[in-house]
């Protein structure tokens, strides 16, 4: 089984189809969607919000937003 990497980042832009452009703390940019658990608690995400992201082991330019940092 492959392990997913977790990283901290900031939302740069809200894209169509419930996607977000996230700039990671290392300077990389990825496209991320919201995880099912975060969707269940109706997390509202805006540009500038800090988030925790799981990066896909198959495509390092894609990820899943796990939680919003307060």
Main attributes of the structure:
mainly beta; single chain; globular
What does this structure look like?
- The structure is a single chain.
- The protein has 70 residues and is mainly beta.
- It is 7% helix and 51% strand.
- The protein has 1 helix and 5 strands, in the order βββαββ.
- Strand 1 and strand 2 form a beta hairpin.
- The longest helix is centred in the middle third of the chain and has 5 residues.
- The chain starts with a strand and ends with a strand.
- The model has no long low-confidence stretch (mean pLDDT 92).
Low-confidence stretches: none
Average pLDDT metric: 92
The structural class is mainly beta
Strand segment tally: 5
**Taking Cα atoms only, what radius of gyration do you get, to the nearest Å?**
11 Å
For the biggest sheet, the summary is: 5 strands, mixed, barrel
Separation, N- and C-terminal Cα atoms: 32 Å
Strand adjacency order, main sheet: 1-2-3-5-4
Query: Could you estimate the helical fraction of the residues in percent?
Result: under 10%
Secondary-structure element pattern, one letter each: EEEHEE
- What shape does the CA trace take? globular
List the helices and strands and how they pair.
Elements: E1 5-15, E2 19-24, E3 29-34, H1 36-40, E4 50-55, E5 62-68
Parallel strand pairs: 3-5
Antiparallel strand pairs: 1-2, 1-4, 2-3, 4-5
Summary?
This protein has 70 residues and is mainly β. It has one helix and five strands; from the N terminus they run E-E-E-H-E-E.
